[in-house]
Amino acid sequence: MILRPKPLSRHAVQPLDAAPIGPMATVPSWLRRAVEMAQTLEDAALASGAALAALDAVVRRQERWAGAWRQRLALAAAAATARQAGRTEDEAALRDTVLLTRPGDDVGPAGRTFLAWRRLAARPPEH
């Protein structure tokens, strides 16, 4: 289940020049239990809403990794948008189209969709 945090390795090494890593966001135990115990659609909807609220709080904290995570979500959103538009490009094709095209060359309709999602994801969420 994606709501269970992975245990950290005892042998994880942090680079010497890196700033200390702050505490990782944990999923509240009541939320984990609610997701595991959901038996009806209403229970699942309530647990989903609570999970989104917890995720929103994590995103708004502006962690260092948030920009990379937003860009990853932008790639996934662009792939979903391309599929809905009837295009065949997947995430890898979109990424390659944008990154391997020479500056000034046309990236095509799916590539423009990906670039639009990247611009949108580049802005941090409003508080």
Question: Layout of helices and strands, plus pairs?
Answer:
Layout: H1 29-37, H2 41-60, H3 66-84, H4 91-99, H5 108-122
Helix pairs in contact: 1-2, 3-5, 4-5
Report on the architecture of this protein.
The protein is an all-alpha fold and 127 residues long. 57% of the residues lie in helices and 0% in strands. It has 5 helices and no strands. It has helices spanning 29-37, 41-60, 66-84, 91-99, 108-122.
Which structural class do you get from the secondary structure elements?
mainly alpha
Q: Provide the β-strand percentage band.
A: under 5%
Number of domains: 2
The total count of helices amounts to 5
Helix and strand string, N-terminal first? HHHHH
- Total beta strands: 0
Shape: elongated
Calculate the mean pLDDT score and round it.
Answer: 77
Largest sheet: number of strands, sense, barrel closure:
none
* Radius of gyration from CA coordinates: 19 Å
What is the first-to-last residue Cα distance?
Answer: 29 Å
Key terms:
5 helices, 0% strand, mainly alpha
In short:
By secondary structure, the chain is mostly helical.
